[in-house]
Amino acid sequence: MTAPAKVSIDLGTRADGGVATLDLEELLATRLLVQGNSGSGKSHLLRRLLEQSAPWVQQAIIDPEGDFVTLAERYGHVVVDARCGIADLTRIAARARQHRVSVVLDLEGLDAEQQMHAAAAFLGGLFDAERDQWYPLLVVVDEAQLFAPAVAGEVSDEARKASLGAMTNLMCRGRKRGLAGVIATQRLAKLAKNVAAEASNFLMGRTFLDIDMARAADLLGMERRQAEMFRDLQSGNFVALGPAMARRPLPVRIGPVETSARNVSPRLLPLPEAGADDAHLIFTPGANEARFEAPRRPPPPAPTADVLARLARSAPPAPPAAEPPPSISPEQRQAAIDSALREILSDSDANFRTIAVLYQDFLVRCRIRRIGGEPLSLPAFRRRLAVAHAGIELAEAESADSPWAEVLAMAGALPEDMQGVFLSLARAAFDRRPCPSDADVASAYGTRSPGRARRLLAYMEERQAIVCRLDQRGWRIVAIPGVAWETEPGDPGAAAATAEASPG
């Protein structure tokens, strides 16, 4: 379908009876924030927007409650079960952008921390798509306060930072990549301010808390005394403002939708008519039910003095003596650690897993091998992993007269997440192999974005860790200052290597 010069989405009716429209192309450039307490019609509004825009633009929906999976039957959205795995979610998101398929990420059934990890991985896959796949994509995130919380909650810092970073990328940097964020929240006060501030269009629904009403009034440019109006809004009524809808606050009522959510609001139903004897049916087991047994009443508690006396007379049983781990030499211990590191790096998804996850995997492998002694700290593990990834022998690296000692010192001056890439470049230069392509550098850094790889190389060159130049064909050569190592020319646009060249 060929889109006209301007696509106007019918949201519903204005207060004067006219049609409330939304300029879809303007929305793609300016983003949208929807706010409303539970029962205000917020999900209904998102469904209306998705249904009206489905023929014109690709859509990706982050759905924490499974409300929008019903769009699949009517509009052909593909439902993605978030339980398939973090690495799979990133790959599916990249393929969705490549093939321009509308998708619904169904997060129902996951706990809060799992939802944050899954959403971060999926949004990361959308964000890191190749440049030639930056087609317009409407990214709708329901209950955005779960994924971009204003303050730390009960989830881990790792999950919160990953999710908040993905939401910030969507709202702050997504426009150039074709991503148009539409975020909806029940509480503006619970939503991170740097995420909410990037929206230029607003639809504010019913809210009751003073802090949320005040923030809604501020975003709409209204006076604080006018904030009381948000308390009186009926379900399905919103105040619209923004370049895609209206230049002044405009009351609108959202129109009907063609699909419905699986989960509907509970409604009152009359109780069944029952006789006096029917009330005792709760004590009678059904045909396919185990016999009901009333729980026994616990005995009265013993006096405190008796409990203390029994505790004084009884000693706790001695725990069984743990079998000591077999003693191994320092060389055997290092060999076992190196073996565990090689197993981790043999996983094709290792580069795309967080360092914390890899570290936990490493500790488990060490326990399986019964490697005694003090375990490696996280910084030491990160450094050993970078050395192993580059194919550098530890004994060679730790030797004072080895040129690798100087290279490792140069790596230590770089941020920790860049050290593995630098050592891989140094290894290629030492072996006189062709310079790794942008795709290879991106893979070593844990991303699929060649643009990010080029920025990484430029940063290293600014820090004087490497020197880059091009030959007559435009192929790249990387040199390591100080040790005078230099790679052979390599095509920066080549595909990622299927396997690392063996060091040597």
UniProtKB/TrEMBL annotation:
<keyword id="KW-0067">ATP-binding</keyword>
<dbReference type="InterPro" id="IPR014588">
    <property type="entry name" value="ATPase_Atu1862_pred"/>
</dbReference>
<feature type="domain" description="Helicase HerA central">
    <location>
        <begin position="20"/>
        <end position="74"/>
    </location>
</feature>
<dbReference type="Pfam" id="PF01935">
    <property type="entry name" value="DUF87"/>
</dbReference>
<protein>
    <submittedName>
        <fullName>ATP-binding protein</fullName>
    </submittedName>
</protein>
<dbReference type="InterPro" id="IPR002789">
    <property type="entry name" value="HerA_central"/>
</dbReference>
<feature type="compositionally biased region" description="Pro residues">
    <location>
        <begin position="316"/>
        <end position="328"/>
    </location>
</feature>
<dbReference type="InterPro" id="IPR027417">
    <property type="entry name" value="P-loop_NTPase"/>
</dbReference>
<feature type="region of interest" description="Disordered">
    <location>
        <begin position="314"/>
        <end position="333"/>
    </location>
</feature>
<keyword id="KW-0547">Nucleotide-binding</keyword>
<dbReference type="InterPro" id="IPR008571">
    <property type="entry name" value="HerA-like"/>
</dbReference>
<dbReference type="GO" id="GO:0005524">
    <property type="term" value="F:ATP binding"/>
</dbReference>
